[in-house]
Amino acid sequence: MTEHFEPEIVAFCCHYCAYGAADLAGSMRLNYPANVKIVKLPCTGKVDIIYLLKAFEDGADGAYVAGCLEGNCHFIDGNIKAKRRVARAKKLLDEIGIGGERLEMFNMSASMGPRFAEVAREMTERVRGLGPSPLRK
Amino acid sequence: MADKVGSVLVIGGGIGGIQTSLDLVESGLKVYLLERTHSIGGVMAQLDKTFPTNDCAMCTISPKLVECGQNLNIEIITNAELGSVAGKAGNFEVEIVKHARYIDDAKCTGCGVCAKSCPIDAIDEYNYGLCERRATYIRYPQAVPRAFGIDKDKCIGCGLCESLCLRDAVIYGDKEQVKKINVGSIILSTGFESFDPALKQDYGYGEYPNVVSSFEFERILSASGPYKGHIFRASDAKMPEKIAWIQCVGSRDRGVERPFCSSVCCTYAVKQAIIAKEHIREGLDTTIFYMDMRTYGKGFEQYFNRAKNEHGVRFVCSRIHTVDPGSDGNLKLVFSDDDGQLREEEFDMLVLSVGFKPTKNVEEFANRLGIKLNEYGFCKTSTFSPIETSRAGVYVAGAAQEPKDIPATVMEASGAAACAEALLAEAKGSQIVKKEYPPEKDVSGLKPRIGVFVCKCGINIAGVVDVPAVTEYAATLPDVAYAEYNLYTCSQDTQVRIKEIIEEKQLNRVIVASCTPRTHEPLFQDTIRLAGLNKYLFEMANVRDQCSWVHASNPEAATEKAKELIRMAVGRAAFLEPLHTIPMSVIRRALVIGGGVAGMNASLSLANQGFEVELVEHEPELGGNIRHIHFTLEGDKPQEYLNSLIEQVQAHKLISVHLESQVKKVSGHVGHFESEVRSKKLEVRKIEHGVVIVATGGVESKPIEYLYGKDDRVITQRELEEHLANSQSTIRNPHSVVMIQCVGSRNEERPYCSRICCTQAVKNALKLKEQNPDTQIYILYRDMRTYGFREEYYYQARKAGVIFIRYDEQAKPVVSNNGRLKVEVKDPILGADVVLQPDMVVLSVAIDSHLENENLAPLLKVTLDASKFFLEAHMKLRPVDFGSDGMFLCGLAHSPKLIEESIAQAQAAAGRAATILNKERVEAGGVVSCVEEKKCVACLTCIRMCPYDVPFINKAGVAEIEAVKCHGCGICASECPAKAIQLLHYRDPQVVAKVDAMFG
Question: Are A46 and B983 in contact (CB < 8 Å)?
């Protein structure tokens, strides 16, 4: 374990809200750690459980899914479906010893730039605390 | 007339102007969109959330801003005003005065270096002066056009921005320009201004720092606002624990010459209280002081009830007279409580719910345009032509006509587009520019050759990220055939260069590493398409908004991350495939269901645009509810109107009317539906059509209380109206009348407000008073909801001696019969029971949805709300569209509303429908889900999971998803247990490749 552990975190963001919030965080020049990298999808409803598990298999130390606020999904309820899948994946991660707390679901609107930055900080700190993923190459 | 011009001038770039522009270009008319400020978006772009769904305003408006900005046929002219107007409907000659912006918006890339270097601070109007901006500025981060401007009043001419701008876009010597254009029609969507609360001196605005206007509070709530979404009070930056709202500031107030109701403030105050409570979690105390809660719109009453019962917002019916300073920066209010007792209470912060007023210099503007204003300075229209101004060919939408909310504005915007389209039907398409593209290159079987273009964005990216190093790195990645960096990848000269390099290096995939795909992807996709590549062979890496701008303090980490983001884009790009859309021909005919005012207006509007209409009505005659309406508050004659409307419908050669008929079957999709209409004689007619408009109307409910049906002297408002209109009626002249409001509305059974009944009661009361001023009339009400300009008639009714008594839902009036009718009600002001003995009791009964809705909804596969009215696609921005493409709704089928609102909505539905009928073909496909038949086991998971009911099991026994119906969310693909479904452009290998590439 290195002393300055920099976790690698994947964020699956929906096009309409979370990706928009990430852009706004940029426009507002809000600083957050560079550990988070975004994969954009049309809707968090498209986040397949495989993508989440693959990220960890590849060596991610953490991952999160960020979608629209509940009740505001642009595809009606894709974010609710994503929430269920994230819960399932967390259980799986617990069972195989990686730890479900490395994965999380967040909801935000496109005007919540500060919230995007906060979530990036929060997850980076959380995963930093947990240390590198046992699967890390 | 051959000289009609196929273009429209839209004045005002708020949500109304944006919607009307988008509809017009879709229907084949060119648009000049004139905007007074530097950017479009209007007031909606300044709002935090929108009622009653609490959707983020920016989330909903920003895709429309971008769409407007990118449309080749919408010319946005900012910082401009209307000059002279000559000519007539069909061909106006208009002068537009474009004020100097001092930055060339065609050259400016919006990089913002100018504003960063500007040494001068100025008041930020976008944030209502709550913070400062620079003299060189952009109104807000998402502004369209994305270009800066200079506030010359503040600029000291230091020259810094000019010397730093790498695009030479700054023009200190910029001059006012006059542009002359010819347009066929003009649409006003100039909106409103908010009342200046300082004029209401007793409320201490401007004197006490913790008194703010509701518009300022909106910015305070906004996450991108002056306090980043934290609520602070100005005096001591303390988070408030008790906030009060005062309603009707500058509304319903003859003292400040604003006698009308501003219609939206009650619901926005409810919204602000709910959102404030969400912001300050630990027990924020919120109180709204109101005169009547006017939450009359669709879903608003339920929203108000949730605020009260679930969020604990306190509502006090009391007009506040004065605001006094309290202790410690607090504000002291004296009010009368529900029990009539005077109370004194202190609040940390006060929000004044300010009303609407006409825009500045509206008279001069109206003179130039040659249109009439009403007595309040809003644009004059009439009940039966709610969108037409007094000048032919000039239409109005939104708050320029009357204070109104976003859905009403959006509806009228689509309605105004329909009016202009009917006027200019033969000129459609004459001024529309279509881009010519070269044939597409076939890239199948070719090894990926990826080109990477890294943008410096002036210093926006290059100032933090080591762009040359990143470019060098990109060149080493697998499949990358070429990499370079540009000063501005989005500038016009770079587009030419990208095209040349695609040719020269034989590239078959392109990556741009710059800003966000949300604004720039279409530009680059267009560039590669011009070079013969399919637009889906493009990928972006966001190294500015999501890298250099947010990791400015750590350039090394930012450079590393930029490399990773490009590596991820390259990983995905190798797997990209061309996608094609399939053109599906459009049957240019509409099916309109319902022959009332809404259905007939929608039919006429479409027929006047040259489209065939099949109008289906289940009753033996056209007309619907308006057959029972005999007079209006404004003095119109509804029966004369109805007769002329029926005559026009029946005479129109493009409209076929099917009476005593019902729709029994609907299949197909947008552009090509096949329906069966069955007549009373059981004849079945098959109709092919491209769109459907649902206008099934509503019905007056039959009351079960207050002795209705048991005593002839208890009648409904509609029955009273029939008596009043009938000179033979025996009960035209009662001595005393009691009217009871909210009979069957706003209760458990029907939680909604029926919207029209307060206006109807005032109308009938005034009619009774007109016939005999000595008639005693009592109106027992819960909240008088005579919104907008209808407030004037409420005032007149009180002046005429009509007595209004408020009652509480918990203590409803009691009607009994001991020979004479007796009505008992508790008057909260007197605190005593009042006993009335009228000759007649008139019930203002609820509007029910039509029974037919429950049969029709499953046929159309559309949704009903809890009260069985049809549910629109989006309450704010798609108020007449269904979630399924090609289907629209209007009138009482949507929710209870007044005649003028039904007409406007019908025209809106026609305007939206025309955007489809105007096309010869609709394109299906692109990013849609697609089933691999071999893998499908027909488990029905996709059928259960699709939010739009698109998948079905076909004759082969496997799931099928019609490209033309798919919305492209991908939910089915990620739920399919057999992995038989893939969302194109987001196939599993394409997504996984991106994740894999992140880890090298």
Answer: yes
